[in-house]
Amino acid sequence: MWPRSRSARARRTDLTTCTDNGFSLIELMVVILIISILVVIALPVFAGARDRAADKAAESNLRNALPAAVSYYVDTSSYDGFDPATGKAAEPSIDWVGAGPPNVGEVAIQVASGPDLLLIALSRSGTYFCISQIENSPQTGRGKDKNFNNINIIPNCTGGW
User: What is the pTM of this model?
Assistant: First the structure.
């Protein structure tokens, strides 16, 4: 005997209740498009955050270096003689260097004579930051520039951070 075939109605029911277990190509392309748009939006934001963090690290080094220099000034009534060795003794966590463009992570003592002080640091973003002590004042001058020669003297250390 031949096996009994299923009725047409049973076969039609099987076709209408069939479920898909995967995604169509269009659905996958839409998801990839959405993810791509989100990545294009997010990458510049993260890159900017990295530069800002590098800049904040350089600013922090200068903020920590200034009290060491000021304490030397309080003891001697002058910045004369404040050099990298003296700075290292006062604040060992900072990598002190002499006048000239510093490397990343270093603080350069650009000017230290009489009542004048100018400290400069370089961030990983390539920006130079400076801080200068204003004579007979608790205020400081602050500035930044991509070019070292634009902030390497006290009058140019302006504009803020």
Answer: 0.74
